[in-house]
Write a structure and sequence with these properties.
The protein is α/β, with parallel strands linked by helices and 238 residues long. The protein contains 7 helices and 7 strands; from the N terminus they run αβαβαβαααβαβββ. The chain has a 7-stranded mixed beta sheet.
Length: 238
């Protein structure tokens, strides 16, 4: 099998930059990583996109991501129920175990996939609008809550689940959540107020953050650190 390198593709370079950013976080803080799945087959069939699995390259880089992930014990991995996200999570975990990291697979998490929408409505709208525009339309309240949960309710529920969903909350270590570009764009906008500017996360990229003192969040996003205020509603969740 051909040897792979982080410089092989633009998306792998961005993935490497995310790893380097995670490495710079304080070691005494819990880090949360939201990550898009690895490289997948593109069937072009929106109605059956759940069946698009990882390519061989996608498997290789998921494993490499795990091998090169910074040493931050313990590490826990969650994923969307869609198979390519589980494949990505499995690859990352295998790479971590090959480099003797303490990692645990926690399994699928509902908020990483389920936005409580009627499937036919989502597919209809996704065929009409680019995904980033679909995020803004949802956030603007242009869709009835009879067909989709309100945007604010979703991002709040996701925040509560992703930050507190564990039986023993950690004060350090890393939680990795493998999901989809649309979900990451929704959470990035709903949690931090950053629009996508037409650039959705590429394969094996996303953002990482931790809570700082005095109600601030330290966010690594698009290859740079940012200081973000904690949403007023989030202060009551944690």
């Amino acid at each position: 099998m051909k040897e792979i390198n982080w410089s092989d593709f633009e998306w792998t370079q961005k993935s490497y930059n995310l790893l380097k950013g995670i490495e710079k976080f304080p070691k005494n803080k819990k880090i949360i990583v939201l990550l898009r799945h690895s490289h997948r087959y593109e069937s072009g069939d929106l109605m059956n996109h759940e069946n698009d699995l990882l390519t061989p390259i996608g498997h290789q880089y998921a494993n490499l991501f795990g091998k090169h992930f910074p040493q931050r014990d313990p590490i826990r991995v969650y994923h969307s129920k869609v198979m390519r996200c589980k494949e990505t999570a499995d690859g990352i975990i295998n790479g971590m175990k090959e480099t003797n990291k303490l990692v645990e697979m926690k399994g699928d998490l509902e908020v990483l996939y389920d936005i409580k929408v009627q499937p036919d409505v989502f597919y209809r709208e996704a065929n009409k609008y680019p995904l980033d525009q679909l995020v803004y339309r949802w956030a603007a309240g242009l869709y009835s809550e009879e067909i989709i949960i309100s945007f604010q309710k979703y991002v709040k529920e996701a925040a509560k689940a992703i930050w507190t969903f564990n039986e023993k909350p950690m004060n350090s270590g890393v939680d990795i959540h493998v999901s989809h570009d649309f979900i990451l764009a929704c959470l990035r906008f709903g949690w931090f107020g950053f629009d996508s500017n037409g650039c959705l996360p590429t394969y094996l990229t996303g953002f990482a953050f931790t809570f700082k003192d005095e109600g601030n969040i330290q966010l690594f996003d698009f290859d740079q650190f940012k200081k973000v205020e904690t949403p007023h509603w989030w202060n009551h969740q944690i």
